[in-house]
Design goal:
globular, eight-stranded parallel beta barrel, 10 helices, disordered N terminus, alpha/beta
Length: about 300
């Protein structure tokens, strides 16, 4: 059973670790998890729902904030369309602004996020905008020098029925060649089990479509994350890590098992933190992100 920590213990441990004086118990002298980077998402929420992240949805200021906290990258939200029907981040000039900001602060894009798919659903044959947004996101993500586009399927856009999964898989099969040609992966984050996700991936049959695995969401929806991660293996393109509304390590999820599973599948890529302020007060967001970042670093150092 994992030890849990109070807020003060986390703060103290994090400060000592930053000074090179100690790390969490049990982590000393073991081989680090290789080839992973720790990022954070820029978003702050959706009407009626609190998401975790920096609280800077589609705002370039998220880059400076992430760097100041100590993250290696930011997962960037595309934002909505302008009057000409072009997503905010799909504009080349906006991409260049972001690249300059990343360079100035010494961190990287940690993928992109099509949050607009919470409004326009890929499962809806009467709404062509969803496909249009993915088509715009593919070259933009390539231009930003990152690889994974998060395609969310939640709320009214969830694909829990088999006919919805079949329809979306067929749409993704049409989009996949362009993604593959651009060196981009369409990452599916949803409410489904690993087996249901594999049904979609096998129907699409492209290396450009994979699962964006969120350990917090999958736990919430009743899935066994400790068996799903090894089951999906290299079909996972990226991770969201969180245990909302708790600090990581103080809730339901055993992160030692999670990170060991990630290590054992040979994952190389981004682990993006999506934690909410434990107090519920957005004023605590930055400090809570520091706590969860330090916890993640110390856990990874113990793998």
């Amino acid at each position: 059973m994992m030890k849990t920590y109070t807020r003060n213990e986390f703060l103290k441990t994090g400060a000592l670790a930053a000074a090179g004086l100690t790390i969490l118990p049990g982590c000393y002298g073991r081989k680090p998890l290789k080839d992973v980077q720790i990022g954070v998402i820029d978003i702050n929420g959706r009407t009626g729902v609190q998401f975790g992240g920096l609280g800077r949805t589609a705002e370039i200021s998220a880059v400076e904030k992430a760097a100041r906290i100590g993250f290696e990258g930011v997962e960037i939200t595309f934002g909505g369309p302008d009057e000409e029907g072009v997503l905010h981040l799909a504009r080349n000039e906006r991409q260049q602004e972001y690249l300059k900001e990343f360079d100035a602060h010494g961190i990287k894009p940690a993928g992109t996020h099509l949050m607009v798919l919470h409004e326009n659903f890929l499962k809806n044959p009467d709404d062509p905008l969803a496909v249009q947004w993915v088509e715009q996101a593919i070259p933009a993500t390539r231009n930003l020098g990152t690889e994974v586009i998060l395609l969310p399927f939640f709320f009214d856009g969830a694909i829990e029925e088999r006919h919805e999964q079949e329809y979306v898989a067929d749409i993704l099969r049409e989009l996949a060649p362009e993604a593959e040609a651009n060196g981009v992966i369409l990452g599916l984050e949803n409410t489904l089990s690993a087996e249901e996700n594999m049904f979609i991936l096998e129907r699409v049959n492209s290396p450009a479509v994979k699962v964006y695995y969120d350990v917090g969401n999958s736990t919430h929806f009743g899935h066994d994350i400790y068996s799903e991660i090894p089951f999906l293996g290299n079909n996972i393109c990226q991770f969201h890590i969180k245990d909302n509304p708790h600090y990581m390590g103080q809730g339901e999820i055993d992160f030692e098992r999670v990170f060991r599973a990630i290590d054992e599948i040979g994952f190389k890529g981004w682990l993006n933190i999506e934690t909410v302020p434990v107090s519920g007060n957005i004023a605590d967001r930055e400090q809570d992100l520091r706590i969860n970042l330090e916890f993640t670093r110390n856990m990874i150092a113990g793998m």
